[in-house]
Amino acid sequence: MELTTVAVHNPDGLNLILGQSHFIKTVEDIHEAVVGAVPGAKFGLAFCEASDKCLIRLTGTDEDCIALARRNAGAIGCGHSFILFMRDMFPINIVNTVQAVPEVVRLFCATANPVQVVVAATEQGRGILGVIDGFAPKGEEGPEDVERRKGFLRMIGYKL
Fold it and tell me: What's the half-sphere exposure (Cβ side, CA atoms, 13 Å) at 23?
C-alpha cells in the first residue's frame, strides 16, 4: 500500500464539500438536493464512479466550479468519492441536505480552508483515509477572540 497526500486545488478559496457515497445516481441526487435547498445555487460537482466504467461523473450550474471539481476529482482519484465546489454560499447552507442524500455515507470536510487529502493506493484502487483541513491550532481563544467570533457571526447573519 502506498500513502500519499493530494492537495485540493482551490485558487479562489471557494467553499467545498468532500465526501464518499456508494451509487452512480449520487451525482444527480446531490445536484437536485443542492438546487432544492438553495435557489440559484452556483456549484460544480464531480463523482468518481467505483465500478463499471469507473468514470468521473460531472454536474453543476457554474462552469468554473464544474471545471474545478473535475480537476480535483481526477487528482484525488478515489472510488465513490465526490467533491462539490460552491460559489456565493456556505457549506452550512447545504451540509445537512447533502448528508441526507441516501447515497452519501460520509463527509470528510466542508470548508474553504486549504485541504490535503490522505490517499491510500493498493493494487485494487485508491481510497480516502482522511483530510487535513486548514492548519494546527496556534493557541487558545481569549476574551478578545470571543468577541471577534461573536461579532463575525452576527455580521454575516448567522446569529442575531
Answer: 10
